[in-house]
Amino acid sequence: MEPTTKTETLDIEGMTCASCASFVEKSLTRTPGVQRAMVNFATEKATIDYLPTQATPATLKEAVIKAGYGVTERTPDTSAADRQAEIDQQKALAYTKLKRRFWVATVLAIVIMPLSMLMLWPAMMARVNMQWLNYGLLVLTLPVLLYSGREFYTSAWNGFKHRAANMDTLIAVGTGAAFLYSLAATVVPGWFMRQGIMPEVYYDTTATIIALILLGKVLELRAKTQTSAAIKALMGLQAKTARVVRPDGQEVDVPIEQVQLNDLIVVRPGEKVATDGVIEEGHSAVDEAMLTGESLPVEKKTGDPVFGATLNKTGSFRFRVTKVGVDTMLSQIVKLVEDAQGSRAPIQRLADKVSAIFVPTVVVIAILTFVLWFDLAPVEARLPLALVNFVAVLIIACPCALGLATPTAIMVSTGKGAEHGVLIRNAEALEKAHQVNTVLLDKTGTITRGEPAVTDFVPAEGQDAAQLLQVVAAVERQSEHPLAEAVVRYADAQAATAIAATGFQAIEGKGAQASVNGQAVLIGNFRLLDEAGISLSPLVRRQADELLGQAKTVLYIAVGGKAAGVIGVADTVRETSAVAIKRLQSMGLEVVMMTGDNPQTAAQVAGQVGIKRYFAEVLPADKAGKVKELQAEGRIVAMVGDGINDAPALAQADIGLAMGGGTDVAMEAAGITLMRSDLQGVVTAIELSRQTIRTIKQNLFFAFIYNTLGIPIAAGLLYPFFGILLSPMLAAGAMALSSVSVLTNSLRLRSFSPAKN
Amino acid sequence: MDSSEIIVTLTGLALSAFVIWYFFFSTRQTASAVSTSSGVQEVDITVKGGYSPDVIEVERGKPVQLSFYRDEENSCSEELLMPDFSIRRDLPAFKTTLVELLPQQAGTFTFTCGMGMLRGSLVVK
């Protein structure tokens, strides 16, 4: 068999020229187990193909260090975190710059405004030389235009070269037109006089529009950073170091990037679990709320899985690393949320189509507005009127509100979902979930715990319950049968004293036998006792029949050749199931159950949780068929399941919800993954999706209505009837507020919390 | 109508026609991906008020690596969306950001800025 090679990428430090690179390359190539090494001087990276049987990343690093250079090791995870930090830093810098530009524009606009109004007082008109005043205003406006507003003009020009038009195009054309007109009126007022037009200037309009739009941008940027807060919080959960136990027993703190598979890691009380693994010794309660939304700490013992970023509460334990870097549960969650935030919701299609043609269309409307005003207004006022309305149309139109309406809501709600242990695969899943009218639950593992538990422990007459339990537990501790495990769990919960059993023997299909305290003990089904010739007393028989009537599995106990009691075992319903199902029903959803059990058991469980319709004796292969059956009735079906055999049904449903502890296969097939094994998650998912879609609809309605009303009003449509014209400054204020209001509405989703009953 | 009204009207109509043609009907810059020895299709895209090239042709079933260099600080282009591939990326100013994807189906897939104003398309053949 061909030995498999692995590839490792190292970041090399200290290379100053190409010969350094070949030096490092040689050193690596000479290392045993290295098949190929390539060092790129420009990117400062070494790519090495090696045989993991002969070399390890550590030996490769040594080879580089031996050649006299350094290695900065990076896992994909840390580089992602670094990249994010860099991006955040850039954004903070941009925000500071933007604020500075805003304040410069605002202060100057506050000075320009009253000076522009001087001419409205006849008393002032005589004292002030208008020409000089205009030059003064021009000097004050130039910094607003060239410093505060510069980005609008460069962006509009760059966009124009690419045949792309955006919000900046509108602002640049609008303010640019107002400014150029004013400049002409300032420099050559005589020409205007000869045309019979007063050479009015609009410097105040130019400056105020720029100040207001920048105010909108400042608010927008502030709100935008909050939309992605959830994912940043998730990334920040990653532990920075881990306490690794070296083979010689020494405990060393190492950076998380250096932790490798199969390392043994110590976790003390109050510490973060560094990465994913399985407990090898010790036990504790671990707070997993950050991953699952489960508020109560989870008990962990040897053999249980633990996850990176969770918080150890009380005990201390050692665990063996099973996953590092991008494979950990935390990284998977972050990736899932990131992917969801990049996806497009079908509801957005119309807005996307409109966005694509929005700006050029508005420019055309503005040009036509100018033409109509120029042609129809009285001669002496036509040019200023045409100009003012042209500018108002350009400035009031707000493509941002349209563009931001859907994605911001999706970003906030996917983050919010993750907080509650509900992972939404994409925007489409979120949208589908709100249309659902039927929820189909696969009984085992969703309504019930999916594992058998003792519900009744009934000693025969004359038997001491506590003693009998000790005896039974002694035998069952040696068995590997799921039913035996249930009995042992029950005995542990009752704090039964552990005693020894000898001569244990499992009897295929019937049960087990052993001897305890010198007495022969039999535990198993009816046939086991029957074949041993042990008869049941009428009382024991009656109790067994009663349990069978409740669709429970019955274990019969015999001690010293006599029937000693019966145990009722059933897959128990979770405490939260009935409440969650009631809540789903009150939300107007029909809840349907399906199970492989016989109709009797199915009816029993359905009755217990208030479900009226159920499918019994459904074979695993028929689950998807049941989904189709419901869909054929014209229903929109959400399917909730947790196992491999649920995957086809999850994929067939309009929306699949895979339940936590669920298999990866089920999660792949599902649009929504619930991190907790609890039906409350289904309620949360559907409520969240309903609220998100409601928010999106409000946003889209607002964005469309704002533009369809705003643009005609700015164009002067109301003027012939009511004499109303919209000042460009008001238009700028309205536009700044419109995108901010859409963002604020999306941010309201941050206060979402699922109803608990 | 006096002469200036006629001039304004004709200029306005001509300008409107130009805007419609320029933004909707004029030809766009197209680039085909270059395949490297390892079979990755690579394309360099400059982001400055738009994407150049803004139509990128790639082959189906082979990995694609798009290098976006954002040559401006303008906040309009700071985000990149490729909804068909569930990609949302921040593009830091004056830096190259790599976006990797594997197109499995033929078709035209749009990529845009965060607000859908700047647009480009990935044509998978």
TrEMBL record, chain A:
It is found in: Cell membrane; Endomembrane system. PROSITE patterns: ATPASE_E1_E2, COF_2, HMA_1, HMA_2. Gene3D superfamilies: 3.30.70.100, Calcium-transporting ATPase, cytoplasmic domain N, Calcium-transporting ATPase, cytoplasmic transduction domain A, HAD superfamily/HAD-like. It comes from the Bacteria. Keywords: ATP-binding, Cell membrane, Membrane, Metal-binding, Nucleotide-binding, Translocase, Transmembrane, Transmembrane helix. The keyword Hydrolase does not apply. It is a multi-pass membrane protein. It holds the Pfam family Hydrolase. InterPro entries: ATPase_P-typ_cyto_dom_N (IPR023299), ATPase_P-typ_P_site (IPR018303), ATPase_P-typ_TM_dom_sf (IPR023298), ATPase_P-typ_transduc_dom_A_sf (IPR008250), ATPase_P-type_domA (IPR059000), HAD-like_sf (IPR036412), HAD_sf (IPR023214), Heavy-metal-associated_CS (IPR017969). The chain crosses the membrane at residues 102-120, 132-149, 170-189, 201-219, 354-374, 386-406, 700-722, 728-747. Coiled coil: none annotated. Its main location: membrane. Residues 6-72 form the HMA domain. Belongs to the cation transport ATPase (P-type) (TC 3.A.3) family. Type IB subfamily. This is Heavy metal translocating P-type ATPase.
Automatic annotation (TrEMBL), chain B:
Residues 17-124 form the EfeO-type cupredoxin-like domain. Keywords: Membrane, Transmembrane, Transmembrane helix. The chain crosses the membrane at residues 6-25. InterPro entries: Cupredoxin (IPR008972), EfeO_Cupredoxin (IPR028096). Pfam families: Cupredoxin_1. It comes from the Bacteria. This is Cupredoxin domain-containing protein. It comes from Hymenobacter endophyticus. The lineage of its organism: Bacteria, Pseudomonadati, Bacteroidota, Cytophagia, Cytophagales.
